[in-house]
Design brief:
Blueprint lengths: L1 E7 L9 E7 L4 H27 L11 E7 L6 E7 L7 H14 L3 E10 L1 E3 H15 L4 E10 L1 H6 L8 E3 L4 E3 L11 H7 L23 H25 L5 H7 L4 E3 H6 L5 E2 L2 H12 L5 E6 L4 H6 L10 H8 L5 E3 L8
Parallel strand pairs: 4-5, 4-12, 5-7, 7-8, 7-9, 8-11
Antiparallel strand pairs: 1-2, 3-12, 6-13, 9-10
Helix pairs in contact: 2-3
Length: 345
């Protein structure tokens, strides 16, 4: 609503013009468009920033040492027990996070012992061995005990061997463990491809360059090749158990390495674990081992990264390039994993 002043001739004999106040309704079509443009600009700005974070996520990754959160014991004690946790599939970024925690515990002179808490179905072969290798180095300096939670199978059991022959392995009464073996995910779409007239005809050098191609059956030579590859990882798994379980020899481990899952009771009977108990039990045993009655027990926690906040923890490592994700999903990945699973990106 606007007010306009107008002048009109006054009545005859009034001596001048008469002022008239005119009220008119004026619409502003540009006002709505301006608001829409500003809102669109705001949305585009937010999307652009998320895109930048995705493209350059390595610059926002976790680089600080793990945080220590008080768990129990004496707040003022200068002697500590560090609780490290693997509570996910053993793969990036969780591998690197746990390795940083292991290295931090190794360097901290106040840490007298380490409790590794495992709640994992396993994961990548290479990642499992990387963690095991770091735990080997750590246990040469400080005792390492293991507490198994809901599931500590395949790669989860593999990293538990990092406690060594002198370390104790505890499992809760309802824990599932074992699943000793290797799996290499593969699909066979050859019949489906024939039905729809799809053929795979890559240009390649060497007959093994496109092994595991899902659009054709695997040849006998290819099957022998991959059986040899995964058997070497399988034998490595058996060796690691044989080296770290004093109560088992290689033949006994091989007999148990059928890929099956064992309950806590079966695992104890087969000497895959030492005791059935909870975290307070394994902590009490570790305190006795290091000879400290009331140490400060701390949980190691990896700081939340900016990408975790923006995209959510499960999405923080997802690339912004769908073509790259597709290509990486076709890469063969041998896994110490407790079940069938699809190819993982």
């Amino acid at each position: 609503m606007t007010e306009t002043t107008a002048f009109a001739p006054g009545p005859r004999g009034s001596g001048g013009p008469q002022t008239i106040l005119v009220q008119t309704q004026v619409s502003s079509p540009w006002r709505g468009w301006i608001i829409k443009i500003l809102m669109a600009a705001l949305v585009l700005s937010i999307l652009a920033n998320i895109g930048l974070f995705s493209a350059y996520r390595q610059y926002f990754s976790n680089v600080d040492p793990p945080h220590e959160r008080f768990h129990s014991g004496s707040v003022t004690s200068t002697e500590k027990i560090a609780i490290l946790k693997m509570e996910s599939t053993i793969m990036p970024p969780y591998t690197e996070r746990l390795i940083r925690q292991i290295d931090h515990a190794a360097k901290d002179k106040e840490v007298k012992g380490v409790l590794l808490v495992v709640d994992s179905p396993g994961g990548l072969v290479a990642d499992s061995h990387q963690i095991y290798h770091r735990l080997q180095k750590l246990r040469n300096e400080k005792p390492v005990y293991v507490q198994m939670k809901r599931i500590a199978a395949s790669g989860g059991y593999y990293i538990a061997m990092g406690a060594g022959p002198d370390g104790m392995i505890y499992a809760e009464p309802t824990t599932w463990t074992g699943s000793i073996g290797v799996i290499l995910p593969r699909y066979d779409f050859s019949k489906l491809a024939d039905t729809y007239g799809v053929a795979s005809d890559p240009l390649k050098t060497g007959k093994f360059k496109d092994t595991l191609n899902p659009f054709r059956p695997m040849t006998d030579d290819e099957r022998k090749l991959w059986e040899n590859i995964i058997d070497q990882s399988y034998q490595k798994f058996i060796t690691v158990i044989d080296d770290n379980r004093k109560t088992l020899n290689r033949d006994a481990v091989t007999a148990l390495a059928t890929g099956q899952i064992y309950t806590a009771d079966d695992a104890k009977q087969n000497m895959l674990i030492d005791e059935i108990g909870f975290e307070e039990d394994s902590l009490a045993a570790l305190k006795e081992k290091i000879g400290v009655k009331n140490p400060r027990v701390v949980n190691y926690e990896t700081p939340t990264s900016l990408m975790d906040i923006v995209l959510g923890n499960s999405k923080a490592q997802v690339t912004g390039d769908p073509w790259k994700s597709f290509i990486e999903s076709t890469v063969p990945r041998a896994m110490y994993y407790c079940s069938w699973l699809p190819v993982m990106p």
